[in-house]
Amino acid sequence: MLEVRDLVAGYGQAQALWEVDLTVDDGEIVTMLGPNGAGKSTLVNAISGLIATWSGTVELDGRGLTDIPSHRVAEWGIAVVPEGRRIFPEMTVVDNLAVGAYNHRAREASEETLEWVHGIFPRLEERSGQLAGSLSGGEQQMLAIGRALMAKPSLLLLDEPSLGLAPIMVEAIFEILRQINQAGVSILLVEQNAIDALDLATRGYVLEEGRIVIEGASSELLENEALRKAYLGL
Amino acid sequence: MDVDLLAQAVVSGVLIGGLYAMMSIGLSLSWGALKIINLAHFTFILIGAYLTYQLTTSFGIDPFLMIVIVFPLFFVAGALLQLFFEWAKVDEFRSLLISFGLFIIFTSLVRTVWTADFRRISSEDNPYASASIFVFGVALQVPLIAAFIAAVVIAVGTSLALSRTHFGRAVRAVVQDAEMARAFGIDPRRVAVILSGLATAYSGLAGVFIAMFQVLSPTMTFAWFGIVFSVVILGGLGSPYGALGAGIIVGVVGGVATVVWGPLSAPLVTFLLLIAALLFRPAGLFRRSTA
Ligand SMILES: Nc1ncnc2c1ncn2[C@@H]1O[C@H](COP(=O)(O)OP(=O)(O)OP(=O)(O)O)[C@@H](O)[C@H]1O
Ligand SMILES: [Mg+2]
Question: For residue A233, what pLDDT is reported?
């Protein structure tokens, strides 16, 4: 469903990605590993339209995303849980979720989607009227995921959703990602938590200095010597 | 001290406060939500007033009918202006310089078209100027009452729109994180264009009411600077209710100061209030609502 070809992107004069190729098939969970500064967030942000791409193509179900204005990407079925959550702090929880469902496709179904999201994160329903900025870190992460789900994506991009969370919370988030995936949403997951991520995903990529250096099935990656040394601490 | 005079000052201060609020909401929205300190708003008020003078005088249009003419006209002007600001890549500081330029240009345009002579709608074309309603023995001018009502409608309507509608949520999302808003399908440019249109339309409306009871001159904007900036800052950037509350406070304080210490004291007291507020409540007397 997602096909990224020769993607190049960066900031100002500084290039951060070199001809990245990547695919996510229907219903798949794919993980993206790599050291700090490798370009993982740049990749996620370029796919979701948060930053402009320099060259290359991003296609979702055969439709090119690089030629449309970035505010249309949501309508086409991509939603993002960005690094650092980036919820709207001065808006209530329920308003944050409503912004998630802003695109026309999602807006019509927003009441049902809200029920589904509240089912996944009961905490968000309890905190409906609270300002998002006053939520705990874990709750903010739930809200960031909930907001993305409100957009009714066919592909969900998550950039280090477990960052800064207690182990029990990390486990809960991974379980929820499994649940979301079973509901038919494909997932591209950027993670530092390599073991958990490979456990959840069917395939994985390793990005280093802006280039894909390893790719393969999760089981293969778990066996890979270089990767085990670098990321699994084994 | 004359109690009746004081009562009159308070009541008319409240009413004129409504007008102050209407003059200020446009700038407040522009500054708070678009990060553009748009001095051209002063000339929008001025042009709204002169246009009202001209159309009522030339065609005998009822001044109140000017509301439905000025609103859409100024909405379009504000939308176009925002496109210009985006094209010129204006940030908060540069907006001050560029819009000051616009202020000068529009002011001289007004002077060219209508000269520096004083203008006032004749009483045949504007029966409202001399009409008063007595409330508790206090005479209240009809245009001021109408302006107050319009200001309340604008403040309440804008505030509800910001808090309850898709468009309002889009505005707040763009203010807080435009990139994320865009990722969820909001076009920040469209939001800004509509908001600028609204803000400009509000300023134009303030001009309509001003033309109903004041003598117009191209330099009258200078007397508005202190009042409007006080109201915008006291009210908190981007907050319609804040502007209404602050408008009323500035109106009443000015009115009472005039009665107690004479007319020259009003701007002084208003500015002291502003400085005190900046020291003790820098985000305004009321909580900011858009940001
Ligand atoms: N806003 C920015 N402006 C300029 N350079 C940036 C910006 N954001 C990232 N970079 C640079 O781009 C490169 C890739 O950064 P990126 O954030 O994509 O890495 P990452 O893999 O997500 O790292 P981390 O694991 O620390 O989140 C780095 O060299 C970084 O310094
Ligand atoms: Mg990152």
Answer: 64
